[in-house]
From TrEMBL:
Residues 42-339 form the ABC transmembrane type-1 domain. This is ABC transporter ATP-binding protein. It comes from Billgrantia sulfidoxydans. Residues 372-613 form the ABC transporter domain. It comes from the Bacteria. PROSITE patterns: ABC_TM1F (PS50929), ABC_TRANSPORTER_1 (PS00211), ABC_TRANSPORTER_2 (PS50893). The chain crosses the membrane at residues 39-61, 192-212, 280-299. It is found in: Cell membrane.
């Protein structure tokens, strides 16, 4: 497993540039949110604006109330007249106005919350779909690369919630910015210095927050192989397909201990970071509080000396308090945006992963009917030292069958992966009907191939859909399910199942039925038969789990239906291999013998020796 190295810290002079450079994803996140729902985005913007301006209006009305009260009290004392609704109305109308403003703020905030929650759901779905759509365009080699897999896991784990987080914070920043500007308008009349003091007081917390979010992100990125191991252990310890073995071999304590150890390491790192982050946050936050109380004292002294009215004092205190809260909220938003941007860089790194060109556009070869040719094909897996296939040449014509024989790891499955274009040869070329596979339109090519891999997928879907998966165009075609199942010998047992072809398979869903290995293999074989248009049938150990009678029936069916199809078979059972027109014996990625059964037996080489070895076992 390769480890993603933590990003090196930028040189000192570049720190600021690196900090702001990180914000480049903000615009893309905003576009994404806009595309998700214009109405909700506009609604968010409107509520943000309202919730931003109204607090300053409330503070201003507060001043009017206090000054009106002071004036009314003086008037009342002078005239000694009794209180009437008319005489108190000049004060009460401000109280009424303030109540209205507060109600409007509450409404705007509810609106914000509602729209955010709707957008969160829509956006989460959109990003997840983007991640999965991208996964469909990537090559098998990319999935097998641990570094790429890390990117995918990180993108899926964190990034789907980040775009909205970023947009929310952008709006919160705007809202607080508007509040601050409107408070600023009120404060300017008191003193520009006061504004300066409040801003300076809040800056240190902001710098420390930004630094620690960067650290947290680097930690998150650097440790993703460990988190992946944790997720893997969770799966092994709690999934039905592994629990059988885990129990019987008594692996729980061992795996659980490994799981705990990973957590302890990660927790230690988290704890250190959290403690440092929060203690610095507290200490630097004190500076902000100090600045606020300094300004508070100043306003009080000015009021006592008579420079400010009581109403003005009330307003300034409110403005200071709310202004300071808005300022630190803005700074937290900015450092949060910085953090979201860092995480979004994961998502976009993944989405921008280069996609290998899908090859050509041929739907017909230069020599139709020529079949499959391998010309001196060699292949080395990415990152591997030695080639898995070397100098392989073969020809398989329509109506013929070819069997591959060889020890474990000799390269048989690799050859199939090249033929199905899951990988491309590193040397030589593969031709279908006289044209290089790379020139073929990949969909046309794949439609011509029906394949069963050794590790075929057991979909937790209906039985019929497990067959339909072999041909997406007939995914729900019951008549075709049945035809394929009959050929794959699955029809008899499917009929005895409680819901017939509509029975749910697997244990994940209610009422799901589990099948035996041999029954699953029949399903896989029937799935390969679903591809009616396929003229290349690739079978990698198609009957390994079947009983002897089923196996014999399967091969009898092959011979009968072969006609103009090409069959490529991998099997360790010589009883099935012997019937092939051509047999290739592969060793260490190279073809060491070739011919039909009779000629290979006559050669008396590796094939003949292995055949006799197996035949002896049956005597
Ligand atoms: N995805 C992969 N990445 C790197 N190396 C691989 C990969 N898959 C297989 N190999 C290596 O390539 C070689 C050939 O493997 P392959 O699966 O083709 O063997 P096989 O002949 O089908 O074996 P078996 O009979 O066990 O199915 C092996 O040495 C294996 O370790």
């Amino acid at each position: 497993m390769r480890r993603t190295s933590p990003a090196p810290p930028p040189p000192n002079g570049n720190r600021l540039a690196a900090f702001f450079g990180v914000f480049r994803y903000s615009r893309r996140a905003l576009t994404l949110v806009w595309q998700t729902s214009r109405a909700l985005t506009l609604g968010l913007a409107a509520c943000t604006l309202i919730a931003g301006v109204l607090p300053a209006v409330a503070a201003w009305i507060g001043q009017l109330i206090v000054d009106a009260v002071v004036a009314a009290m003086a008037h009342h004392q002078q005239t000694g007249a009794s209180l009437t609704l008319e005489s108190t109305w000049p004060v009460l109308r401000y109280v009424l106005a303030e109540a209205g403003v507060i109600a409007a703020i509450a409404l705007a905030q509810r609106g914000l919350a509602a729209q955010q929650s709707l957008l969160r759901a829509l956006l989460g779905q959109k990003v997840n779909v983007m991640i999965l759509e991208k996964a469909g365009t990537l090559s098998l080699a990319q999935f097998e690369d641990s570094e790429f897999y890390d990117k995918l896991t990180r993108a899926r784990r964190e990034a789907s919630t980040r775009p909205l987080g970023l947009v929310n914070k952008t709006f919160a920043l705007l809202q607080n910015g508007i509040s601050l500007a409107s408070f600023g308008v009120l404060l300017v009349q008191f003193s520009l210095w006061a504004i300066g003091i409040l801003v300076l007081g809040a800056l240190p917390v902001f710098v420390s927050e930004a630094k620690f979010s960067g650290d947290a992100f680097r930690l998150f990125r650097w440790r993703s192989p460990q988190t992946r191991m944790q997720m893997y252990l969770e799966t092994v310890l709690a999934r039905e397909d592994s629990i059988k073995e885990v129990k019987l071999f008594g692996l729980e304590p061992l795996l659980l201990e490994r799981y705990r150890r990973i957590f302890d390491t990660l927790y230690g790192e988290d704890r250190r970071l959290t403690l440092r982050r929060e203690s610095w946050g507290f200490l630097l936050g004190l500076l902000g509080t100090l600045a606020f109380y300094g300004a508070y004292a100043w306003v009080v002294v000015e009021t006592v000396s008579g420079t400010l009215t009581l109403g003005e004092m009330t307003m300034y205190l409110m403005v200071f308090k709310q202004g300071q809260a808005a300022l630190s909220a803005s700074l937290t938003s900015i450092s949060g945006m910085y953090e979201d941007n860092l995480y979004l860089s994961n998502l976009y790194e993944y989405l921008e992963q280069p996609v290998a060109p899908q090859g050509g556009s041929l739907t017909q070869g230069a020599k139709p009917g020529d079949g499959i040719r391998f010309e001196r094909v060699g292949f080395t897996y990415p990152g591997a030292d030695a080639p898995a296939l070397r100098d392989v040449s073969l020809h398989l014509a329509p109506g013929h069958s070819l069997a591959l024989v060889g020890a474990n790891g000799s390269g048989k499955t690799t050859l199939i992966k090249l033929l199905t274009r899951l990988y491309e040869p590193s040397e030589g070329r593969i031709l279908l009907d006289g044209s290089d596979l790379r020139e073929w339109d990949v969909h046309t090519l794949r439609r011509r191939i029906g394949v069963i891999f050794q590790d075929f997928v057991r979909y937790q879907l209906k039985v019929g859909e497990n067959l339909g998966a072999g041909d997406v165009e007939a995914f729900a075609d019951e008549a075709r399910w049945q035809e394929a199942a009959e050929r794959g010998l699955a029809d008899t047992f499917i009929r005895t199942m409680p819901g017939g072809y509509h029975t749910q398979l697997g244990r994940w869903f209610k009422g799901g039925q589990e099948l035996s290995s041999g029954q699953w293999q029949k399903i896989a074989l029937a799935r390969a038969y679903m591809r009616e248009s396929a003229d290349i049938l690739v079978l990698d150990e198609p009957t390994a789990a079947m009983d002897a009678a089923a196996e014999a029936a399967v091969y009898a069916d092959f011979r009968e239906h072969r006609r103009d199809k090409m069959t490529l078979l991998i099997s360790h059972r010589f009883s099935t291999v012997r019937a092939a027109d051509q047999i290739l014996v592969i060793d260490g990625g190279e073809v060491i013998e070739r011919g039909d059964h009779a000629s290979l037996m006559a050669q008396n080489g590796r094939y003949a020796r292995l055949f006799r070895l197996q035949a002896e076992g049956y005597r």
